[in-house]
Write a structure and sequence with these properties.
Bound molecules: nicotinamide-adenine-dinucleotide
Distance between the termini: 28 Å
Number of domains: 1
Largest sheet: 7 strands, parallel
Radius of gyration: 17 Å
Oligomer: single chain
Number of strands: 7
Strand order of the largest sheet: 3-2-1-4-5-6-7
CATH topology: Rossmann fold
Length: 256
């Protein structure tokens, strides 16, 4: 929660991956706080549905059908958001996916490229595109989504995905430190398994899901709202000294 009541009222966040899961839950939470929410996703229909929810909460939304792996489209996303709302205060890079589970020796170039394009470049492009605007306007907060996989390494199923999320954490660290004096904070969140369409999209096997669950002392998956509330805190004025790090949210699991 913010330190200042109504801190988010009238401020604007861009959320990628806003059509589903963690992105959508975060859009609802920022709408609850009175923020304008730019809902960007490759799934334009889903982004529109999220905007309807944002509007129903009394806030203003803008739906954009954007592929975050395309540099030009991401530039358009930032420009359209600025045209509509004037200033962008926060960016939440939630778009991402494990795409396909694969043993290490079976990871081919196509899977490797698509995984890095979506999870790493899809975070890099929006970050690079928003920073000049944040510099001009006295700062901002960027929150990225990595994964517990970055810590585990994804043996047997997801080394490609784990490595791409590891790159997200490294980028977060570098961006945070490069722009620390410019009042731009950059953080990441490394979730354990969260109840969203993510596992279905990656065709995770029932055995893999069970392995994830067995590893969580709380004995359950997280809810997307349990990530969204942390995004809100990270963007707020309650943690101005917090930058560069990743926060693990995993019910105590993760072989740490
Ligand atoms: N759910 C989990 O267990 C879990 C765990 C760790 C990390 N994560 C990460 O959390 C983030 C959000 O995942 P989620 O659980 O909400 O999954 P989700 O599948 O519910 O949502 C992902 C969203 O990203 C969008 N997307 C995919 N490719 C895109 C592209 N090229 N351009 C724009 N949008 C695109 C999808 O359309 C979808 O709406 C991802 O980065 C994921 O890697 C999820």
């Amino acid at each position: 929660m913010p330190k200042t009541p109504n801190y988010f009222q009238g401020k604007t966040i861009i959320i990628t991956g806003a059509a589903s899961g963690i992105g959508r839950a975060t859009a609802q939470i920022f709408a609850r706080e009175g923020a304008n929410v730019v809902c960007a996703d490759i799934n334009g229909k889903g982004a529109k549905e999220t905007v309807e929810q944002v509007n129903a909460a009394g806030s203003q939304g803008l739906a954009l059908a954007i592929d975050v792996t395309k540099r030009a489209a991401v530039k358009d996303m930032i420009e359209l958001a600025i045209n509509d709302f004037g200033r962008i205060h926060f960016l939440f890079n939630s778009a991402g996916a494990a795409l396909k589970r694969s043993k290490f020796l079976d990871i081919d170039d196509d899977l490797l490229d698509r995984t890095f394009d979506l999870n790493f470049k899809g975070t890099f492009y929006p970050t690079q595109a928003i920073i000049p605007h944040m510099l001009e306007n006295g700062g901002g907060v960027i929150v990225n989504v990595a994964s517990m996989a970055a810590k585990r390494g994804g043996p047997g199923s997801s080394v490609h995905y784990a490595a791409a999320k590891g790159a997200v954490n490294s980028m977060t660290l570098g961006v945070a430190r490069e722009f620390a004096k410019d009042n731009i904070r950059c953080l990441s969140i490394s979730p354990g398994p969260i109840k969203t369409p993510f596992q279905a999209a990656a065709n995770s096997s029932p055995e893999l899901i069970k392995r994830f669950l067995d590893d969580i002392p709380m004995g359950r998956f997280g809810e997307p709202e349990e990530i969204g509330e942390l995004v809100l805190f990270m963007c707020s004025d309650a943690c101005p000294f917090m930058t560069a790090d990743t926060v693990y949210v995993n019910g105590g699991g993760g072989w740490r």
